[in-house]
Amino acid sequence: MIKLQHVRKVFADANFTALGDVSLDISDNEFVTVVGPSGCGKTTVMNILAGLDFPTGGQALVDGETISGPGPDRGVIFQQYALFPWLTVRKNVEFGLRTAGVPRAERRRTAEHFIDLVGLSDFADALPRTLSGGMKQRCAIARAYAVNPSILLMDEPFGAVDALTRVRLQEQLLRTWSQEKRTVVFITHDVDEAVFLANRVVVMAARPGRIVEVVDVDLPYPRTEEMRLSPAFTALRNRVWSAVYHQETVA
Length: 251
Ligand SMILES: Nc1ncnc2c1ncn2[C@@H]1O[C@H](COP(=O)(O)OP(=O)(O)OP(=O)(O)O)[C@@H](O)[C@H]1O
What we know:
GO molecular function: ATP binding
Structural class: alpha/beta
Distance between the termini: 33 Å
Strand content: 15-25%
Low-confidence stretches: none
Domain ABC transporter: 2-231
Oligomer: single chain
Order of helices and strands: EEEHEEEHHHEHEHEEHH
Keywords: ATP-binding, Nucleotide-binding, Transport
Helix content: 25-40%
Bound molecules: adenosine-5'-triphosphate
Largest sheet: 6 strands, mixed
Organism: Paractinoplanes deccanensis
InterPro entries: AAA+_ATPase, ABC_transporter-like_ATP-bd, ABC_transporter_ATP-bind, P-loop_NTPase
Strand order of the largest sheet: 6-7-8-3-9-10
């Protein structure tokens, strides 16, 4: 379980309060998306969860322990693919297992499982430069999964791909998550994406960064394309959108 308790982040050099007072509990295997305007502190929250940055007030905990740095329990996937260009898909997915000292045969087996799960089996021996943006991001997801973290932290992972690929990646990610449940914290600018993926959508506002609304998405999984057109989905999207939009006009 992830627990943010009155988390505050002040960048002292800039005398800037990036996060005012953020409290949030995320249950195991929950899929939470975070939306909000640019500068509201989404990446700051992610960095704190990843252990790459630390709160200046309050506490960030995983399973009751204060986050003190990066750890194998948390896999991070960023917008930039961050694959090793000289390694094949298989070797990229195996990389974390190799550094963890997992024996070769087991490495192979695990990598194959996740490469298959993200639909890249036919490209296991391909180099990243020969893959499309969407395929690279699926490879990054397989690589994050392979080391078996209980939490996946995803910061705008589909921001750099075209709209159609993005929809496919969302479906692919949900398929993967349904088969291999993990706690997912997923940052996006895209309200549609936020609602389509999540159990809960967290809406943030800026100056200072804070949570203004948490919307429960009570639509069943698997989520389908038809669902995107349903009145229930539209109502949720409108609610999230107005929570994001109205703060902008007020500010
Ligand atoms: N190291 C830093 N020093 C000073 N200010 C910072 C630092 N890092 C971030 N900030 C500021 O904190 C605020 C929150 O930044 P953050 O990157 O978390 O926002 P965000 O919601 O992820 O934005 P975007 O959607 O544009 O990526 C911004 O106003 C940013 O300028």
